[in-house]
Specification:
Layout lengths: L3 E7 L8 E7 L7 E10 L2 H7 L15 E8 L10 E5 L14 E5 L3 E3 L6 H4 L3 H14 L7 E5 L4 H13 L2 E6 L5 H6 L4 E4 L4 H8 L4 E6 L6 H6 L1 E9 L14 H4 L5 E4 L9 H12 L8 E5 L3 H10 L5 E5 L2
Parallel strand pairs: 8-9, 8-11, 9-10, 11-12, 12-13, 14-15
Antiparallel strand pairs: 1-2, 3-4, 3-6, 3-15, 4-5, 5-7
Length: about 325
């Protein structure tokens, strides 16, 4: 059994029953690639899109997973030492080649980010892709600066919670939405200055607090709420389209002059492993370990509970990040 591993295989797009835990040969890395012993991986909407058949360019059967956290098992070029703690993400993982839903995964070395931490694997597994996306959205997408105001549309998602943490750390005033009134207290406890119930008219609530509108807004729900999010931004404010919790990401018959409020800027963000500087990852982990910031609620599953985890992801049963502990 030494030459095999447990892995989750998605046979074809469809319901959670299409996900099965099977034994596969342990993958061998080619030159320039690295084999990682996976300790934990986070679940992402991208993987739900893959399972539902909404993602383009995916071939089946496929081991899903756009991220993984663990240790270097084998680097045929000897660049990374065995046992080095690493994260990896994106770059075609779980789409054009097998991803992180497995005991081992093989990825290009350039998408491996090293770190050192004594945090539990289930905490470390919650971080990489969510941190990369939140960090890139606030820096590249919004160019957020200290003292500015930020609206997060979809604030109780794992990404929304990390974005709030980073924005507060920067010194921003954060407004954040949830559709569930019972989660307002959780947002406040996470440091959000103005938790808001998303009733479809968030712009009105924002302007009751900030009459000119917010400096920046992060759209994590998708195109159904984007017009209202744009209406919440001030003149010369910026809205960054990053997430698609609604599974809708196109705007039919887009007419820019009629769609965009006067003077409001619309940007978008999608990043890769190279967009998460190692020093940003290390500092974030160190601050979690020091108790200075929190990773937010984390719900941990075993590999053989992957169908339960995907069900919770699809239907929003959990508040925060869903993580699978592999071993």
């Amino acid at each position: 059994m030494d030459g095999t591993m447990r892995a989750v295989v998605l046979a074809a797009p469809g319901p959670v029953e299409q996900l099965s835990v099977v034994r596969l040969p342990k993958p061998e890395p080619a030159p320039g690639w690295v084999r990682i012993k996976v300790e934990a991986f986070g679940l992402n909407r991208s993987e739900l899109h893959t399972r539902l058949g909404l993602a383009e360019g995916v071939t089946f059967p496929r081991v899903p997973g756009i991220e993984a956290t663990g240790t270097v098992d084998l680097d045929p070029d000897g660049v990374l030492r065995p046992g080095q703690q690493v994260v990896t993400m994106m770059g075609g993982m779980g789409r054009t080649f097998d991803g992180g839903y497995a005991e081992y995964t093989v990825v290009p070395r350039e998408q491996v980010v090293p770190f050192a931490s004594g945090l539990p694997w289930e905490v470390l597994g919650a971080v990489p892709e969510t941190l990369q996306t939140a960090y890139g959205s606030l820096t590249v997408g919004l160019d957020l600066t200290p003292g500015q105001s930020l609206l997060i549309r979809g604030g109780t998602s794992a990404l929304g919670l990390v974005a709030a943490t980073l924005a507060k750390d920067l010194g921003a005033t954060v407004l954040s939405t949830t559709r569930n009134p019972d989660r307002l207290g959780a947002l406040a406890g996470h440091g959000v200055d103005h938790p808001l119930v998303d009733d479809g008219k968030v712009a009105e609530q924002v302007r009751a607090i900030l009459p000119d509108g917010v400096d920046a807004a992060l759209e994590l729900v998708g195109t159904p709420t984007l017009p209202d999010t744009l209406a919440a931004a001030r003149v010369h404010g910026t809205v960054c389209f990053t997430g698609m919790l609604s599974n809708q990401w196109t705007v039919p018959d887009f007419y820019p002059i009629g769609y965009l409020p006067r003077g409001v800027r619309l940007a978008a963000y999608s990043g890769e492993a190279a967009d998460l500087p190692p020093e940003v990852l290390q500092r974030y982990l160190d601050r979690i370990a020091a108790g200075e910031i929190g990773v937010g609620p984390t719900h941990v599953y075993r590999l053989d509970e992957i169908r339960d985890a995907h069900t919770d992801l699809e239907h929003g049963h959990r508040f925060g990040k869903l993580v699978v502990r592999v071993n």
